[in-house]
């Protein structure tokens, strides 16, 4: 691969630390911890990835995975179904994985390690699924503005002009955006909801229609409850500048600067250390023209391949159907934690990575009540406070007719402002699944997924949820009303996903940082938290994998000087600021020799284009 001059310079700058780490055994990266035996609770994507990474560490002597279910994968659940003319894939959990560097680079590395490259299906940025995203408002589909790479400048302008003249909400959005920089800053001292932030900066209507739809799609959550500081922290920072949000975004774009979550960069450190900068650039090149990816037999192919790789490792023991009941700190031995399983057997581990939900972990830490075992009371309370996740129904439908959907695209989302007569099913959105996973099905036809519930079902009892057949009828009725689809699906399967998506509610980040500190302090840095319930930003498969990389590199045992220097160099080069290096030299203060929620000492970095392009 040819390097640009700038990239060559960067490569040379990284060369010194790289050369150092390449010439010493891998073990030296974690020299301060010594040999240890580790355990992971949960075999979802985060737990499986963490176990896989730990199994590669020479200083990790044994990895035990505890999974309460008899299957692995957690929310990842793909089904390959035979139909008349071939096969189709239904997803009951995640289906499209973000393919944006640097966030997706650990995922790509994992796919490479598991030899799944030829199973990847990329969705190009120019495809209808990337270009066309709709909302249903007020009673028809509106295509959200985006630049169509397949059309010229004039047709793009014409399309925007038409949207502007025909759709009052788009007209309103443009006006409010243009006037945003003129509004005074009015930020409350603490966190606020997304609805509050967007209403202040733009308008309540934009929050109700456009923004509520987006968060129905990502969190199935309510913008009245989701935290602006956690999910829109960057924009809140921009609000405090003279140019406000839009002005700062335009200025950054004009100067070629973009913001990257610092944890995404931190996760690259082990990759650079093991495989070098060229490898990072190679992986980034794979996704340059793509927006998402999936696998030929569904996302479940990834967890199946991880399971197979773990089974091959003599270090790994996988205990399926094993519910962890208790976790405790042995009063006579500060070097580890005891884990009590369903059969009341206790095992001891030097390091534990928990990926199960916060309420489940709180129960485990409360379980052991021997007089000499000190309970981590503050940690338990913080975990008990983090107890809100939404339940949703996923309905997959397959029709042999390939021409059922009136438009092409990823699908549509339904805003909270839609009156219940138009959405009595309380649907969140519809995915045009044959378009979002092109190449998965060998049978022709149309595949649709209807998502219902989420925050709309808060407070519902078990008996309130629709059963399997009712859910399918509800989905069909919605599709008839919204898309005029009257055909009967030949395969239809619904799944109720209880407490599936944890919600980062107001003050979430602050609570998570307190949880991280107390877990570290009360459990002697032996308990590390990772996964969807402990994410400090977005939650998805890519984020779980990234957290597993960060947790196994920086959250388990000490981080040695060379790893730290490499991280400092990387941040220094990416930001083009010597000052950022200092932040990263202090990293052990943030990661503290392991435990808690491992993370970078700062939240995000601003990278000039030239610096960024040296890596991705
Ligand atoms: C319907 C749906 C659609 C989604 N769509 C997408 C998407 O398109 N793209 C995307 O990127 N993300 C998507 N997500 C989010 C993504 O699926 C999750 O963020 C991710 O799978 C979480 O993985 P995890 O390993 O952190 O947690 P989990 O998958 O929840 O794994 C935790 C594991 O811990 C186990 N466990 C719990 N308690 C115990 C115990 N006491 N003892 C032992 N084991 C225990 C559980 O059985 C489980 O296997 C979706 C989620 C849902 C529900």
TrEMBL record:
Classification via Pfam families: Amino_oxidase (PF01593)
Pathway membership: Porphyrin-containing compound metabolism; protoporphyrin-IX biosynthesis; protoporphyrin-IX from protoporphyrinogen-IX: step 1/1
Cofactor binding summary note: Binds 1 FAD per subunit.
Alphabetical keyword list: FAD, Flavoprotein, Heme biosynthesis, Oxidoreductase, Porphyrin biosynthesis
Cellular location(s): Mitochondrion inner membrane
Enzyme's top EC category: oxidoreductase
EC number: 1.3.3.4
Primary residence: mitochondrion
Domain Amine oxidase residues, every copy: 45-544
Any coiled-coil regions, as ranges: none
Catalytic reaction(s) noted: protoporphyrinogen IX + 3 O2 = protoporphyrin IX + 3 H2O2
Keyword Oxidoreductase: yes
SUPFAM superfamilies named among the record's database cross-references: FAD-linked reductases, C-terminal domain, FAD/NAD(P)-binding domain
Required co-factors: FAD
Known function: Catalyzes the 6-electron oxidation of protoporphyrinogen-IX to form protoporphyrin-IX.
Family label: Belongs to the protoporphyrinogen/coproporphyrinogen oxidase family. Protoporphyrinogen oxidase subfamily.
Protein name per its UniProtKB record: Protoporphyrinogen oxidase
């Amino acid at each position: 691969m040819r390097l640009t001059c700038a990239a060559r310079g960067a490569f040379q700058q990284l060369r010194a630390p790289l050369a150092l780490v390449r010439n010493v055994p891998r073990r030296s990266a974690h020299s301060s911890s010594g040999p240890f035996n580790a355990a992971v609770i949960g075999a979802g994507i985060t737990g499986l990835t963490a176990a896989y990474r730990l199994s590669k560490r020479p200083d990790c002597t044994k990895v035990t995975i505890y999974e309460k279910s008899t299957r692995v994968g957690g929310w990842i659940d793909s089904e390959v179904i035979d139909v008349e003319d071939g096969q189709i894939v239904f997803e009951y959990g995640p289906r499209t994985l973000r393919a944006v560097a640097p966030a997706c680079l650990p995922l790509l590395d994992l796919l490479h390690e598991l030899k799944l490259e030829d199973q990847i299906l990329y969705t190009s940025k120019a495809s209808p699924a990337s270009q066309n995203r709709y909302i249903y408002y007020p009673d028809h589909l509106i295509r959200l503005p985006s630049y169509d790479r397949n059309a010229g400048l004039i047709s793009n302008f014409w399309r925007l002009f038409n949207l502007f003249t025909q759709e009052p909400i788009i007209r309103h959005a443009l006006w409010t955006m243009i006037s945003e920089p003129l509004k005074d800053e009015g930020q409350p001292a603490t966190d606020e909801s997304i609805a509050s932030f967007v209403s202040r900066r733009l308008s309540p209507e934009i929050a109700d229609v456009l923004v509520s739809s987006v968060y129905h799609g990502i969190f199935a959550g309510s913008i009245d409850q989701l935290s602006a500081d956690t999910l829109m922290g960057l924009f809140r920072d921009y609000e405090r500048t003279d140019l406000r949000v839009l002005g700062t975004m335009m200025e950054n774009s004009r100067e070629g600067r973009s913001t990257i979550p610092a944890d995404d960069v931190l996760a690259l450190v082990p990759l650079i250390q093991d495989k070098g900068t060229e490898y990072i650039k190679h992986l980034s090149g794979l996704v340059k023209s793509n927006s998402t990816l999936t696998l030929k037999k569904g996302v479940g192919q990834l967890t199946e391949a991880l399971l197979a790789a773990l089974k091959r490792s003599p270090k790994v023991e996988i205990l399926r159907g094993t519910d962890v009941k208790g976790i405790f700190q042995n009063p006579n031995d500060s070097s580890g934690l005891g884990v009590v399983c369903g059969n009341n057997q206790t095992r001891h581990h030097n390091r534990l990575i928990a990926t199960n939900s916060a309420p489940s972990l709180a129960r485990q830490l409360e379980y052991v009540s021997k007089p000499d075992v000190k309970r981590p009371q503050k940690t338990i309370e913080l975990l008990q406070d983090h107890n809100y996740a939404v339940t949703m129904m996923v309905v997959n439908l397959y029709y042999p007719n390939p021409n059922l959907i009136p438009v092409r695209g990823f699908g549509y989302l339904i805003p909270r402002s839609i009156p219940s007569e138009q959405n009595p099913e309380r649907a969140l959105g519809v995915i045009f699944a044959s378009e979002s996973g092109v190449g998965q099905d060998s049978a022709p036809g149309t595949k649709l997924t209807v998502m219902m519930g989420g925050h709309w079902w808060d407070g519902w009892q078990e008996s309130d949820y629709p059963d399997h057949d009712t859910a399918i009828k509800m989905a069909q009725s919605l599709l008839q009303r919204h898309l005029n689809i009257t055909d009967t699906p030949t395969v239809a399967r619904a799944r109720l996903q209880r407490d599936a998506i944890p919600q980062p509610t107001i003050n979430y980040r602050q609570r998570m940082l307190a949880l991280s500190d107390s877990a570290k302090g009360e459990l002697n840095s032996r308990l590390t938290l990772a996964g969807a319930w402990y994410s400090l930003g977005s939650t998805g498969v890519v984020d779980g994998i990234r957290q597993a990389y960060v947790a196994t590199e920086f959250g388990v045992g000490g981080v040695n000087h060379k790893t730290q220097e490499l991280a400092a160099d990387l941040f220094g080069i990416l930001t083009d600021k010597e000052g950022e290096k200092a932040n990263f030299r202090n990293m052990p203060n943030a990661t503290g020799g392991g435990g808690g929620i491992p993370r970078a000492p700062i939240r995000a970095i601003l990278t000039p284009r030239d610096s960024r392009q040296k890596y991705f």
